[in-house]
Design brief:
single chain; mainly alpha; globular; 334 residues
C-alpha cells in the first residue's frame, strides 16, 4: 500500500531564494474594511485612554493608564509604518491625512520616515550602506582604525541609554531636528513636528499643569519610543545575525539571516502590531501586519527563524553586541 500522506510530505520541496519571496505574494492583499478597523479602533482606544487618564481618581491608576497609552502608541506607529509601505489603505486620501497626523504626533514625519526606512529595507545587513535609517555597524578592523571622535559617535548611537531614550534621540533628534538642519527645504516637516509637539505640550501644561504633561506625554512617549527603538535595534542586532559585503547581498538572505522573530506573549504581539514577525516583514513589506501570523503558519520555511525576546537576559545579549568580526562571521562585544 502507498502512504499518500507520506508521499505528499516527501514530495514537498522547501522554497528558497526568490521563490520564497514569490510565495509570500499571495498574502500581500489587505482586507480594506479590516485595515480601516485597526486604524480607527486603535486611534479611538488611544484617545479614550487619554481621557481616562484625565478623569481617573487615583495617581496609581493614572500611571497605569499612561503606560497603556504608550503601548497603544507603539501599535499605532507600526500601523503607520505599514501604511508607509503601501501594505494597507494604499492611495486612500482619508488614510493619508490621518497617517500624516500620526507621523507628526509620533515625531516621525512621513517624508523623513519613508526615505530613511525604504533605504533600510533596500540595504538591511549590508556592511557598507546599512547605516541610513538603521543603527550603524562597523567591522572590528574599521572600529580599531577609526578616530576617537568616530568611535565615540558610533558607540553613542548604539549605547543602551541612547536606545531607551529614543523619544529624544531616535525620534526628536534623528527623525526631526537633524533631517531639517541637513535639508531644510525638503525636510521642513521635521521642524513642524517639533513645533506642533511643543504646542501640544504647552497647551496641556496650561490646562492641567506639569503632572498632566507627564501622564499624557512624557510617560507614553518615553515608553513607546524607547520600546520602538529597542525593537528596531534587536530585530537586526542579535547574536545569530549575518551581515554581508554588498556584493554578496540578497533581499531574501537579508530577510532570513539578518532579521529576527521576536517571541512575545499574545498581548504584546497585539500592542506591537506583529512587528515581531520581522523576518516575514522584510521578505515582503507589502503583507499587512495582521496577516503575518497567517504567513508563518502556512509557510514551513518561515517557521524556524533566528529568534530573540524581551526577556532581560535576551535584551542584554543583544545590547552587548558592538562590532562585526569578519574573521568569525558574527557580531561581538568590544
Amino acid at each position: 500500500m502507498t502512504d499518500k500522506a507520506g508521499d505528499a510530505v516527501s514530495a514537498y520541496v522547501p522554497r528558497t531564494g526568490k521563490n520564497l519571496t514569490i510565495a509570500t505574494k499571495a498574502f500581500a492583499r489587505e482586507s480594506r474594511s479590516k485595515s480601516w478597523w485597526v486604524v480607527l479602533s486603535t486611534l479611538f482606544l488611544f484617545f479614550a485612554n487619554s481621557a481616562c487618564i484625565i478623569i481617573a481618581p487615583y495617581l496609581a491608576i493614572k500611571i497605569g493608564l499612561s503606560i497603556v497609552s504608550g503601548l497603544l502608541m507603539v501599535r499605532m506607529f507600526v500601523i503607520y509604518h505599514d501604511f508607509q509601505h503601501g501594505a494597507i489603505l494604499h492611495r486612500s486620501k482619508g488614510a493619508t491625512s490621518i497617517m500624516w497626523g500620526v507621523g507628526m504626533l509620533s515625531l516621525a514625519p512621513s517624508s523623513v520616515w519613508r526615505s530613511s526606512h525604504n533605504h533600510h529595507h533596500a540595504h538591511n545587513s549590508k556592511l557598507r550602506s546599512s547605516h541610513i535609517g538603521s543603527y550603524p555597524i562597523m567591522t572590528r578592523k574599521r572600529f580599531q582604525s577609526a578616530s576617537s571622535s568616530e568611535r565615540r559617535q558610533y558607540l553613542f548611537m548604539r549605547h543602551p541609554l541612547t536606545i531607551f531614550v529614543g523619544y529624544f534621540t531616535t525620534f526628536g533628534l534623528g527623525m526631526c531636528l537633524l533631517p531639517f538642519l541637513r535639508h531644510p527645504r525638503e525636510q521642513w516637516e521635521g521642524l513642524l513636528a517639533l513645533v506642533l509637539h511643543a504646542c501640544i505640550m504647552a497647551t496641556i501644561w496650561h490646562l492641567g499643569g506639569f503632572m498632566l504633561v507627564v501622564l499624557l506625554l512624557l510617560i507614553p512617549f518615553t515608553l513607546a519610543m524607547g520600546l520602538g527603538s529597542y525593537l528596531f535595534y534587536a530585530q537586526h542586532n542579535f547574536p545569530e545575525v549575518v551581515h554581508t559585503d554588498n556584493a554578496g547581498w540578497t533581499h531574501h538572505g537579508a530577510a532570513m539571516e539578518a532579521s529576527s522573530f521576536m517571541r512575545m506573549p499574545s498581548i504584546m504581539h497585539w500592542f506591537t502590531a506583529n512587528i515581531g514577525y520581522h523576518h516575514i516583514h522584510h521578505l515582503n513589506a507589502k503583507i499587512p501586519f495582521y496577516r503575518l501570523p497567517e504567513v508563518m503558519r502556512n509557510m514551513p520555511e518561515l517557521q524556524t527563524p533566528n529568534q530573540t525576546s524581551l526577556h532581560p537576559r535576551e535584551i542584554l545579549r543583544c545590547l552587548r553586541l558592538k562590532v562585526w568580526n569578519c574573521q568569525t562571521g558574527g557580531m561581538e562585544a568590544l
